[in-house]
């Protein structure tokens, strides 16, 4: 999941975008980038790494201007090792455009050929976001007739984009000399919202993936961008909005609520924290129907994302909630790290067990989700090493059985521990004495009941139903092949880096 932000102000925006990206860091830890604009000139800095590492003072000084955007990347297409695939992406015509994208296109492979052969556009990376930018540039070229460019023409271009691209996308794009365009896919899979601050110099408008980025930078949350809707914010900070999709419907990605988003964000009217509490509540009901709670001495969360669910579950079954694992706060999120071997090693670097919470006890470990099973397998073993008598494991999300093609990095079935395995086989794999999963309907109810205005929830990795309804076998194969070969490159890239640093030492 990437984090994106865009802002139009009357005062310099470099620090503001940096601060917003720090608030969105949990959504992407592989690369970061900012573009600012002064008149029609763009200034860009992007590189691999976390926000704090990518931007030094000298880079920040070189980002002048009162308009800009930024991104933190967690790759789901293309190559995590390529600096060029860090975002924003730039094209010089029409007008000069820079774009940031959160999501994943399912027809990028077909569009790539079409763009070259028919639209005469050249792409230089494997990123689907570069495809998206070029489709937008092409549509804008067609829509813009006489100058100056009008919001109506911008919306026409977005209508064209919706028709051509498939998949999930939340996008912010800077149009040199005109303003900031933001839009969201017609199914509302990926989140996007906007807010405002009233500065003495005039209004400041910020668009961001999560409300926490608005709040944390002093903006009043105005509303979510509707599915299919586009906002065009002109250089005076005036917001123009139009629905650009033919049949929009709101189906936010359920994995945002399970794991991706920060608990203090509100997405599409749903508090992520409350959704996690609710999932803890329904998981407790499931547990009670599976085993007597009297067999459990203590409930222990697997930090960090599972805490609200574990807390609520413990309260519901009347057992103590204890922090048995300490998290090294300097290790990033392991699920969103590219490469299996890095993920595996990181679990032990990240979490350490405190024996006094485990010794001689029957412990129930709670995680928000079990994806590849790396975390739970290591953790169960660590709980045993710390002296636990029996180790039970519960997941606040149902088994992840199907690949995700909408921007969560689990594109291949084979990497998912629950794919083609029974619960009993998974239990055996992770080495737990019992394994309890949330069920799909309960999860959907726990989240969906918090906003009755939803049309549904995008939950394909749990139920195999792909909301856009147009993902062909060829699309699955293209996404899978690309990510598999990239995975291998990532592994060898990591090895290269490890060898280099060993050599440097
Ligand atoms: O089954 P796996 O493939 O191991 O993935 C699942 C784990 O990954 C995530 O944690 P992560 O460390 O990314 O972040 P967190 O600190 O927010 O929980 C998630 O919360 C699970 O703990
Ligand atoms: N997680 C995301 O939103 C990724 C955006 C884009 N697909 C990329 O790989 O860079
Ligand atoms: Mg976790």
UniProtKB/TrEMBL annotation:
Sequence ranges assigned to domain Glutamine amidotransferase type-2 in this UniProt record: 2-236
PROSITE patterns noted in UniProt: GATASE_TYPE_2
Required co-factors: Mg(2+)
Binding site for Mg(2+): 305, 367-368
Family: In the C-terminal section; belongs to the purine/pyrimidine phosphoribosyltransferase family.
MF annotations from Gene Ontology: amidophosphoribosyltransferase activity; magnesium ion binding
Pathway: Purine metabolism; IMP biosynthesis via de novo pathway; N(1)-(5-phospho-D-ribosyl)glycinamide from 5-phospho-alpha-D-ribose 1-diphosphate: step 1/2
Keywords for this protein: Glutamine amidotransferase, Glycosyltransferase, Magnesium, Metal-binding, Purine biosynthesis, Transferase
Protein name: Amidophosphoribosyltransferase
Functional description taken from the UniProt entry: Catalyzes the formation of phosphoribosylamine from phosphoribosylpyrophosphate (PRPP) and glutamine.
EC assignment: 2.4.2.14
Organism the protein comes from: Caldimonas caldifontis
HAMAP family linked to this entry: PurF (MF_01931)
UniProt GO BP: 'de novo' IMP biosynthetic process; purine nucleobase biosynthetic process
Gene3D superfamilies listed in its UniProt record: 3.40.50.2020, Glutamine Phosphoribosylpyrophosphate, subunit 1, domain 1 (3.60.20.10)
Record region (Disordered): 481-505
Active site residues according to the UniProt entry: 2
Stored InterPro entries: GATase_2_dom, Ntn_hydrolases_N, PRTase-like, PRTase_dom, PurF, PurF_N
Catalytic activity, reaction form: 5-phospho-beta-D-ribosylamine + L-glutamate + diphosphate = 5-phospho-alpha-D-ribose 1-diphosphate + L-glutamine + H2O
Record text on cofactor binding: Binds 1 Mg(2+) ion per subunit.
Pfam families xref list: GATase_6, Pribosyltran
């Amino acid at each position: 999941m990437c984090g994106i932000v865009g802002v139009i102000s009357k005062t310099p925006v470099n620090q503001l975008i940096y601060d917003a990206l720090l608030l969105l860091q949990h959504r992407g830890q592989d690369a970061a980038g900012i573009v600012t604009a002064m008149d029609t000139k763009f200034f860009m800095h992007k590189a691999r790494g976390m926000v704090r590492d990518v931007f030094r003072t000298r880079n920040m000084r070189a980002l002048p201007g009162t308009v800009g955007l930024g991104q933190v990347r967690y790759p789901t297409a293309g190559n995590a090792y390529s600096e060029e695939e860090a975002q924003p992406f730039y094209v010089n015509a029409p007008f000069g455009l820079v774009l940031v994208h959160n999501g994943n296109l399912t027809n990028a492979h077909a569009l790539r050929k079409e763009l070259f052969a028919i639209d005469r556009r050249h792409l230089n990376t494997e990123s689907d976001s570069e495809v998206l930018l070029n489709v937008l540039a092409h549509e804008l070229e067609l829509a813009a007739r006489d100058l100056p460019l009008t919001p109506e023409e911008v919306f026409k271009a977005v209508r064209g984009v919706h028709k051509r691209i498939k998949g999930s996308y939340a996008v912010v794009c800077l149009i040199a000399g005109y303003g900031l365009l933001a839009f969201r896919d017609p199914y509302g899979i990926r989140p996007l919202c906007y807010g405002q601050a009233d500065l003495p110099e005039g209004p400041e408008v910020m668009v961001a993936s999560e409300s926490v980025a608005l709040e944390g930078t002093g903006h009043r949350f105005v509303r979510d961008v509707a599915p299919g809707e586009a906002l065009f914010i002109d250089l005076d900070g005036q917001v123009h909005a139009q629905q650009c999709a033919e049949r929009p419907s709101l189906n936010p990605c359920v994995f945002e609520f399970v794991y991706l988003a920060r608990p203090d964000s509100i997405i599409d009217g749903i508090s992520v924290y409350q959704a996690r509490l609710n999932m803890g509540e329904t998981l407790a009901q499931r547990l009670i129907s599976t085993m007597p709670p009297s067999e459990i001495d203590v409930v222990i969360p697997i930090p960090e994302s599972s805490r609200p669910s574990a807390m609520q579950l413990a309260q519901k079954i009347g057992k103590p909630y204890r922090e048995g694992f300490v998290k090294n706060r300097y290790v990033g999120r392991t699920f969103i790290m590219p490469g299996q071997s890095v993920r595996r090693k990181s679990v032990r670097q990240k979490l350490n067990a405190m024996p006094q919470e485990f010794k001689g006890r029957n412990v129930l470990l709670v995680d928000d989700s079990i994806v590849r099973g790396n975390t739970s397998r290591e953790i169960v073993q660590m709980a045993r090493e710390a002296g636990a008598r029996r180790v039970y494991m519960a997941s606040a999300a149902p088994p992840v059985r199907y690949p995700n093609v909408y921007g969560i990095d689990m594109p291949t079935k084979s990497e998912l521990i629950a794919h083609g395995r029974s619960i009993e086989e998974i239990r055996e794999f992770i080495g737990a004495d019992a394994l309890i999963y949330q069920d799909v309907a309960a999860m959907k109810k726990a989240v969906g009941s918090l906003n009755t205005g939803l049309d549904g929830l995008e939950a394909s990795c749990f139920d195999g139903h792909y909301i856009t309804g147009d993902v062909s076998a060829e699309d699955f194969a293209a996404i899978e092949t690309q990510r598999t070969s990239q995975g291998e490159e990532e592994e060898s890239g990591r090895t290269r880096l490890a060898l280099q640093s060993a050599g440097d030492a």
